[in-house]
User: Which sequence fits this backbone?
């Protein structure tokens, strides 16, 4: 009996080791890109194009693996040891966390690539029901009594933090940089929010499937996707007079690429995003391209809107996070004052 | 220490394997929570776990879990009774269906329940008419927790009920007991230990539930945030220690509650034995 159990344990051990070694045994060149949720379609297209480009350039066949999830949880996975060659996340704050907690990336990472290491941008727009029955035109309409606004919880969703900051920035500009007025505006706005989903896709679901709310605050690219998939006859996009420039940053993870010997490939993978072809793919997936020529080509797709950056108005992500979203920050006060 | 030989052989290796297994699977992960929390100062720990928002979430989590488990306690008992004592067409299918809440990804359950109970859903639109809001209220949390805890009470009572000899009931009846007396004095006492176990399992499962609840609760601060959501919130700020601190408090309270239920069972067993 004892022998049998011992045998069983040995078997389990062997099987476990077997599983581990199989994945290590056959190893073509692979690259793991750890990204956030709404880039799924973008990187599917981009990876296919890059694999072709790399093959033509070097003759090597690469396999690119993609991982998607909430931006914060993806950053945590990398901190906890997920071997990402590159990270392409929703906010610089999440990459800063990898720098700070795991020291896998040098502190000056954002200076390594052009445009704050953000090869594409997006902004926050409004999705309303067809015909715009509540006549929502701009941020001011969101705080009117009787309007319900759908946005995810800024404490758990990166996208929601952009929404919140866009509203705050608008109120600042309108009231001559009066922080107190801005806080009142945002507080009023969140009084009109009946549900705080934990993520952006959850909010889209609430607005689209449950039919709750008059307006959904969303990434421009998500709004376009929703429109295409759910029908242009049901919703329309309203672009406010002013909004925030969302810059989803990308970087290689130095410690990982050096260990795996994929630095050259990883660097090229990110640089190619800035190329004409990369920018075309970006624009086709409803992200705003950086390259002038491509931007002009897709001019009609992206309505002109005055954009402010987080650095201009909030002094960067670290500061915005501490003041607004960390525990005890302004967002908590909005709810705990009640 | 004097070595006493147990009558059953194999005590040494069996205990060895058990301890190794428990350590690997249970104790070491739990110890990590402890160790991570220990890196905090006492003041930060206290401030974190007594924050008004966190307190509100304990209240909701424990109360909703308790209510969910209680509802399952009542209806689970009824269900088990019907499944064991009666024969009807479709019985096997219903029996098999009962385990689905175990197998279903919780997010799917959450989305399905929200669809049903939100203002334009099948149930929601009628409930809304009579002024009852379910989705995005604490009541919604109770609904989700009732759903995921359903199998526990049924599955723990079923086998006991099956083994319960009909003779006891017949004896009770022949001694002049009414139906209610037979149930409350003869059948129910025999079921109490497994019933309590089922309740405790459903309660414990509900406390840790995250996936289904976040869809139906609406996650409004101070009103419908469950404790596991706040743990996620902390993690989203890369505040690992804050997250483990809340987890630790939750673990300790849960452990105490489960211990009480266990003691209650023991006490009940001894009382029954002395009868």
Assistant:
């Amino acid at each position: 009996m004892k022998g049998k159990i011992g045998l069983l344990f040995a078997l389990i051990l062997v099987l476990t080791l077997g599983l581990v070694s199989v994945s290590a045994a056959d190893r073509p060149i692979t690259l793991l890109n750890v990204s956030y949720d709404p880039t799924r379609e973008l990187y599917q297209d981009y990876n296919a194009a890059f694999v072709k480009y790399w093959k033509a350039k070097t003759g090597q066949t690469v396999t690119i693996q993609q991982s998607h999830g909430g931006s914060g949880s993806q950053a945590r996975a990398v901190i906890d040891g997920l071997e990402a060659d590159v990270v392409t996340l929703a906010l610089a704050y999440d990459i800063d966390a990898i720098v700070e907690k795991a020291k896998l990336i040098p502190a000056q990472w954002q200076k390594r690539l052009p445009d704050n290491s953000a090869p594409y941008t997006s902004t926050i727009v409004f999705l309303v029901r067809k015909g715009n029955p509540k006549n929502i035109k701009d941020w001011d309409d969101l705080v009117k009594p009787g309007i319900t606004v759908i946005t995810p919880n800024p404490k758990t969703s990166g996208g929601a933090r952009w929404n919140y900051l866009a509203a705050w920035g608008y109120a600042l500009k309108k009231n001559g940089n009066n922080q107190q007025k801005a806080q009142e505006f945002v507080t009023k706005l969140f009084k009109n929010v009946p549900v705080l989903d934990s993520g952006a896709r959850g909010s889209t679901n609430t607005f689209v499937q449950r039919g709750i709310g008059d307006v959904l605050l969303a990434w421009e690219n998500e709004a376009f996707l929703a429109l295409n998939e759910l029908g242009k006859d049901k919703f329309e996009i309203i672009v406010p007079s002013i909004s925030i420039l969302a810059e989803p940053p990308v970087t290689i993870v130095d410690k990982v690429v050096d260990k795996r010997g994929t630095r050259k490939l990883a660097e090229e993978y990110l640089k190619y995003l800035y190329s004409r072809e990369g920018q075309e793919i970006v624009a086709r997936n409803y992200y705003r391209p950086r390259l002038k020529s491509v931007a002009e080509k897709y001019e009609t797709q992206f309505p002109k809107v005055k954009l402010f950056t987080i650095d201009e108005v909030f002094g960067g992500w670290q500061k915005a996070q501490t003041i607004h979203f960390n525990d005890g920050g302004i967002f908590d006060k909005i709810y705990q004052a009640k | 220490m004097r070595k006493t030989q147990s009558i059953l052989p194999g005590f040494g290796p069996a205990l060895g394997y058990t301890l190794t297994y428990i350590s690997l699977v249970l104790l070491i992960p739990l110890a990590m929570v402890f160790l991570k929390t220990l890196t905090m100062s006492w003041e930060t720990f206290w401030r974190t776990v007594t924050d008004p928002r966190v307190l509100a979430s304990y209240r909701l989590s424990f109360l909703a879990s308790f209510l969910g488990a209680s509802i399952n306690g009542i209806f689970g008992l009824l269900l088990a009774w019907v499944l064991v004592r009666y024969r009807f067409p479709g019985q096997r299918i219903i029996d098999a269906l009962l385990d689905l809440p175990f197998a279903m990804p919780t997010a799917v359950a959450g989305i399905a329940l929200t669809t049903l109970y939100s203002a334009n859903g099948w149930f929601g639109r009628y409930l809304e008419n009579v002024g009852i809001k379910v989705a995005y209220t604490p009541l919604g949390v109770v609904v989700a927790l009732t759903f995921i805890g359903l199998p526990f009470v049924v599955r723990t009572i079923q086998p006991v009920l099956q083994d319960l000899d009909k003779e006891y009931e017949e004896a009770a009846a022949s001694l002049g007991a009414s139906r209610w007396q037979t149930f409350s004095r003869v059948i129910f006492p025999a079921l109490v230990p497994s019933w309590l176990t089922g309740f405790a399992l459903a309660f414990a499962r509900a406390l840790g539930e995250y996936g289904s609840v976040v869809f139906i609760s609406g996650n409004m601060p101070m009103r419908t945030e469950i404790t596991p959501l706040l743990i996620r919130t902390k993690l989203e700020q890369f505040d690992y220690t804050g997250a483990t601190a809340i987890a630790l408090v939750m673990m300790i309270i849960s452990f105490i509650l489960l211990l009480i239920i266990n003691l209650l069972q023991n006490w009940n067993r001894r009382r029954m034995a002395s009868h």
